[in-house]
Write a structure and sequence with these properties.
Length: about 350
Amino acid sequence: MKKYNVIIIGGGVIGTAILNELSQQGINNIILLEKETIGSGSTCKSGGFIRCFHQDSYLSDLALESIPTYMDISKEINFSNTGSLFMEKKENIADMRQEIARIQSKGYLLEELTPNQGQKRFPSIDWNNISGAVYEPMAGFANPLAASHYWTTKARESGARVMEGVSVKNIITKDREVVGVTTSYGKFYSDIIIVAAGPWSKRIVKPLGINLKIRTKAIQINFFENKNNQYPCFIDNTTKLYSRPEPGRLSLIGYPIDDWDIDPDVEYPLDKKNLSRVQNIAPTRIKKINYSSFSGGKYGFDAYTSDLRGIINTPPEYPGLIITTGWSGGGFKVAPAVAKKIVNLCLNKIC
Ligand SMILES: Cc1cc2nc3c(=O)[nH]c(=O)nc-3n(C[C@H](O)[C@H](O)[C@H](O)COP(=O)(O)OP(=O)(O)OC[C@H]3O[C@@H](n4cnc5c(N)ncnc54)[C@H](O)[C@@H]3O)c2cc1C
């Protein structure tokens, strides 16, 4: 089989963003291998929130760097500019203000809202028990699967190869250097291998003696009928609820699930306990929804790191190996910035 400049394992939003960025940088002769179909992992379940403000400035910066890329392709990814709110409790307001000022100093528009201002401006949200909020007028939501397909198509047009239904079985090494992969379709060779296989990354690199510090955690989003779904995306750090309008006169509402170490190869049913928690808690925030109008949901998962910062790792014992996973429920909004970081690592190795 022929030798490639770069092999990418995994066609989720992270792998496809890397593929696109490599081809944008003029690196050709690259291949992405996906065991199922593009975006079939966490990516196709994602809520698609695009926003900048995080409590952790490392993540705010990754998200901020990603926003221009998403604005450039807003039509292709069905971006909906609803704006986004992050609502805080009293003890976090000082830190929130500091992070607002830090992000504003980079030229990104953020507004601090008092509960009174919030209630006036966004009356369909109940501001009870909220001590303050950050509002991002540029934020909203988009379709992560559409982004993955768009990047795949663009890269293919520039000559990149993408193979779906090809599962990587193991990474081949020679004298402690990566040289290729064995797959369900035969062997592929390259001196640069990028593992971007979400939770499956752990299994792929384990035979090399690398123990990735990630755990798989469930995430569920639930949909309810809502004819008046004109409100911004929001994350409510007082109740842990998050929500956004969903096309089709629906509202998407999520609440964290504490299911860890789930098997990403098993198809799980919707968690009824999570649904009833949402039905109990959400009426305190969005009052006018009929919560018995549950209209389906998605039970997905993501790879989590303990600090939620994701992994961009180049193990020194295997030159040529780059691992990126662990995006902890937020990989879509940071994918373009992660891709840029990975491609810089590749350029260092190729040049
Ligand atoms: C319900 C839900 C809601 C979410 N909401 C948001 C949100 O609003 N905003 C946000 O930013 N993020 C959100 N996320 C998180 C985001 O979707 C993920 O962080 C992101 O999709 C991770 O992308 P990835 O490419 O790392 O992994 P994945 O999308 O899981 O892709 C990994 C790919 O690798 C492939 N693969 C695995 N093993 C192999 C192998 N051996 N050979 C070849 N291919 C292989 C898989 O088939 C898969 O397609 C949400 C996630 C879920 C589940």
